[in-house]
Amino acid sequence: MRNPIGRLLDHHPSDLLLRVQAQPVQAQPLQGQPGMPEPGAEPLGEPVPWQLWHQTPATPVMERLENFHWLLLIIMVVICVFVVALMAYTVWRYHERRNPTPSRASHNTVLEVAWTVVPVLILVVIAIPSFRALYYMDRTPEVVDMTMKITGRQWYWDFEYPDQGGFQFSSYIVPDDQLPPGGRRLLEVDNRALVPVGATIRLIITAGDVLHAMAMPSLAIKRDAIPGRLNESWMRIDRPGVYYGQCSEICGTGHGYMPMVIEAVEPERFAAWVNERRADAGLEPVDVAAAVSPLTRSAPDVPPAQTAQVTPADPIQASGAAAGSVAGKE
Question: Which fold has domain 143-280?
Answer without folding.
Answer: Immunoglobulin-like (2.60.40)
